[in-house]
Each structure stands twice: as structure tokens, then as C-alpha cells.
Write a structure and sequence with these properties.
The chain is an alpha/beta fold. Helix content is 31%, strand content 22%. It contains eight helices and twelve strands.
Length: 259
């Protein structure tokens, strides 16, 4: 089946942070209209039920450092399938423009004369801390937040983390678990050993796990809880608000049951 006007089309779709209920209606409609779906490792596979009409559903993600396809191969696959079948949906975890390489795929598709559309997704950088009751900003505590990749394309730690460590902003680090010891050193060098930090693994999934501590204690907590990737690192005074919110929620529940 070819798309409208017989022009091959790519739709880059953000699947959200993991909980399948956190995908948008527009994203669902895009998946339902797809002739081919190319999906990543971090999407919830329950979402593939919406692709029941697709001719092909292809895993193109990365698991434990092993690539199903290299990026150049994915680019070519998008174009080849769009020209052969019509509408390709590229399904990505979180938001496709937040460390999702969605812009690269769109640039390539446009260079090959594909029509292109984008459906935003709920970024894990924002939604996962929120799901755990951690506000990224709060009046009087944090006026801003940084979202940083922990690991660059050269597999080095991002130099922006050293800059962020000097600020009072909330710091959200994606893809940073392999650099945790280096991150701790950078914040310790700024005399921030007591700064609260949370590490949230499998955010918004049923098996979500969290470790909360300080810069000084977090590596021991990670070892104790067995935390690993995929995980998000949140650093800042706002992390302590989670305990406050938990206490308030507990008090409200106790109050309700007393009546």
C-alpha cells in the first residue's frame, strides 16, 4: 500500500518512557497507519499491537552494546522500505529528538525525497523523575535543569557534566551508568559530596527500581541494589523532595483511613 500521492513517507514517533499508557494518541494513530515499523530496544513491545496492519515489524535497536543494525543501515532501510511499501514508522523510546538520533534519520530521509513527519514523545529525562515524585524545578530550590548525555559518541564522559557540577541546577544524565564513578569525582571536586542523587532503573515500567543517596554514598547504593542500565541519574536538592512527597502521601492515606 502506497501513501497519499504515492510519495514514500517516514514518520518518526516518540514512544514515551516505557509505560505503554504514556504514548500519545497521535503516536498510536501513526503506528496503526504504518506499512513498516522499525523499532528500538527501549520501546515497550506492547506498543507493537498497534502495528497489526503493518507488512513488516523490524527490530533495529541495540542491546548490551550489540547493534541489530548500524545507523547507516537503518537510514538505508528506512528509505528502501518507504519506497517499496509506502509509510515507514520509526518508533523510538522517549522523545526522538532527545538523544534519539531522530534528526539524523529525518535529514537522510529528506535527502532521498521522502515526506517526513514527527510525533513528539514524552522524554524519559522529564517523565521518569516525575513518576518518582522528583520535581526537576521547584521555587526556592532549583531554577533550571540540565539534560546531558553521560557518554559521547566517542565513548567519553560529556564535558558538559563538569560545567553542570558547578551550577545549582538539577542535573539529569542519560546513558551515564558506565561513567558513574567519573560523575561522582566531578561533583566531589566541587565539594558536593552531600548533594542528593537518585538513580532510576527501568523508569515507569512495572520493574522500576530506584536508589537514593548522596554523591558520597551512591556507588555503594548502586552495588547494594544491583542497579544498572537502562537508568537515569538525577542530581540536585530536588531529589530530597521525593521523601517529602512520600511522607505527605502517607499522611493523606492514613488520614483517609481514619475516617
Amino acid at each position: 500500500m502506497q501513501t497519499t500521492n504515492n510519495i514514500p513517507k517516514l514518520t518518526v514517533v516518540g514512544a514515551g518512557p516505557g509505560d505503554p499508557d504514556l504514548i500519545s494518541l497521535k503516536a498510536i494513530k501513526a503506528i496503526q497507519s504504518a506499512d513498516v515499523v522499525l523499532y528500538d530496544a527501549l520501546i515497550n513491545v506492547d506498543l507493537l499491537k498497534y502495528a497489526s496492519s503493518a507488512l513488516e515489524v523490524i527490530f533495529v535497536g541495540k542491546r548490551k552494546g550489540c547493534y541489530a543494525y548500524q545507523q547507516e543501515q537503518i537510514n538505508e532501510l528506512i528509505v528502501q522500505r518507504a519506497k517499496s511499501f509506502g509509510h515507514v514508522v520509526r518508533l523510538k523510546g522517549g522523545d526522538p529528538f532527545v538523544f534519539g538520533r531522530g534528526a539524523e534519520e529525518i535529514d537522510y530521509a529528506k535527502s532521498k525525497n521522502l515526506r517526513v513527519d514527527v510525533v513528539p514523545g514524552m522524554s524519559s529525562a522529564l517523565s521518569v523523575p516525575t513518576h518518582q515524585g522528583i520535581p526537576l524545578t521547584k521555587r526556592g530550590i532549583s531554577e533550571s535543569f540540565w539534560v546531558i548525555t553521560g557518554t559521547t559518541k566517542n565513548h567519553d564522559i560529556s564535558s558538559d557534566i563538569a560545567l553542570a557540577a558547578k551550577s545549582t541546577a538539577t542535573i539529569v544524565i542519560l546513558m551515564g551508568m558506565s561513567k558513574l564513578s567519573e560523575i561522582v569525582k566531578l561533583f566531589s571536586a566541587e565539594n558536593k559530596q552531600d548533594l542528593p542523587i537518585a538513580i532510576i532503573q527501568n523508569g515507569t515500567y512495572a520493574n522500576e527500581n530506584i536508589g537514593v543517596g548522596t554523591i558520597a554514598s551512591i556507588q555503594d547504593i548502586v552495588a547494594e541494589k544491583g542497579l544498572s542500565s537502562p537508568a537515569i541519574i538525577v542530581i540536585g536538592e530536588v531529589v530530597s523532595q521525593r521523601a517529602t512527597l512520600d511522607r505527605i502521601q502517607t499522611e493523606v492515606r492514613e488520614l483517609k483511613t481514619s475516617f
